[in-house]
Amino acid sequence: MPHPQKRLCGLLIILCPLSLHCSRVPPEPCHMELVNKTEVSEFFLKGFSGYPALERLLFPLCSAMYLVTLLGNTAIVAVSVLDVRLHTPMYFFLGNLSILDICYTSTFVPLMLVHLVSAQKTISFIGCAIQMCLSLSTGSTECLLLAIMAYDRYLAICRPLRYPVLMSHRLCLLLAGAAWVLCLFKSVTETVIAMRLPFCGHYVVSHFTCEILAVLKLACGDTSVSEVFLLAGAILLLPVPLALICLSYTLILATILRVPSAAGRRKAFSTCSAHLAVVLLFYGTVIFMYMKPKSKEARISDEVFTVLYAVVTPMLNPVIYSLRNKEVKEAARKVWDRRQTSA
C-alpha cells in the first residue's frame, strides 16, 4: 500500500492545474534559462550614484575642467594653424595632441555631466559600443603620440643639425597617421569582440562611462579572447612607449647637463619636468587601470583614477605643453592683434 505522503503528493499534482490558486511560477532552471536568453538593449551607468555628495561636487569641477580643455586645446590648434612660424614638427604633434584631447573628453564627459544631475543614467547598446570604441581609440592614440613627441624632442635637442632631415614633414604625417589608423583598427577589434559576448540580462555598469573592463564584468560568457586582446594592446601601448619616453628624456637630460649656461639648463629642466609630470600622470593611472590584476568587484578607486587620466590630464596638456611656451604666447598675441585690426 502506498505511503500516505506519496498519495498526498500525487493528489496535489492532479489537482494543482485545476486550482485557481495554484502557482504558475516556472521552476528555477526554466527561469534561469529565460534570463540567459534576455538580450540587453541598454546599459545603466551606475557611476557615482551611490555618493550623492560626490556627484554634487564633481559636476562643477568636471564642467570647469571640460570647458578649460575645450578652450585651451582649441586655442592651440587655431594658433598652430594660423601662425606660419609654428608650422614645425613640434607644433604639428602638439596640434594632434590637442585634437585628441578634445575628441577623447568629448566621447564621455558631456554624457557624464548629464548623468551627474539626472536620475536617468542609461545609454543604448549601440551608444555604449560607439563610446567604448572612440574612447579606446583616442586614448590609445595618445599613448603613441606622447612617445612620438618625446622622440621628436630627442632629435631636436640631441641631433639639432640633422633634425630637419630626420624629422621631415612626410615622416611627421606618416607617424601621426599610423598612430591614428592603427589604434582605431585595434579599438574596433576589441569593441566588436567585447560587445558580441552574452550579457544574460545584466545591464548595470559600475562606471560612469562604457569602459571596456567594467562592461566585461557583466558578460556571462567566456571573456578570455577579449582579455588576451586587451593584455596584448596594453603591453604594446603602455610599457613599450613609456620605456621609449623615459629613454628619450634621459638622453635629453644628459645633453642638457652639458649646456654651459645655467639659465639654459634651468629652462630645459623646467620644460622637461613639466612634460614628464603629464606623462607620468597619464601613464601611471592608465597602467593602474589596465595592467592590475582583474577583479569582479567594482571599486570607486577605478572611477577616480579614470577621472584623473581622462579629465584632468587633457586639461593640463595645453598648460604644460604650450601655454607656458613663449613662442605660442607670442603667436597667440599676434593672431589676436590681427583679428582686432581686421575687425
From TrEMBL:
Keywords assigned: Cell membrane, G-protein coupled receptor, Membrane, Olfaction, Receptor, Sensory transduction, Signal, Transducer, Transmembrane, Transmembrane helix
Record lineage: Eukaryota, Metazoa, Chordata, Craniata, Vertebrata
Subcellular compartments: Cell membrane
InterPro entries: GPCR_Rhodpsn, GPCR_Rhodpsn_7TM, Olfact_rcpt
Taxonomy, superkingdom: Eukaryota
Residue ranges occupied by any G-protein coupled receptors family 1 profile domain in the UniProt entry: 72-321
Gene Ontology CC: one annotated term: plasma membrane
Chief place of localization: membrane
First and last residue of the signal peptide: 1-24
Function field: Putative odorant or sperm cell receptor.
Membrane topology summary: Multi-pass membrane protein
Pfam families: 7tm_4 (PF13853)
PANTHER family: OLFACTORY RECEPTOR
Regions crossing the membrane: 57-79, 91-117, 123-151, 171-189, 228-256, 268-291, 303-323
Family according to the record: Belongs to the G-protein coupled receptor 1 family.
Record's protein name: Olfactory receptor
Gene3D superfamilies in UniProt: Rhodopsin 7-helix transmembrane proteins
Molecular function, one GO term: olfactory receptor activity
SUPFAM superfamilies, sorted: Family A G protein-coupled receptor-like
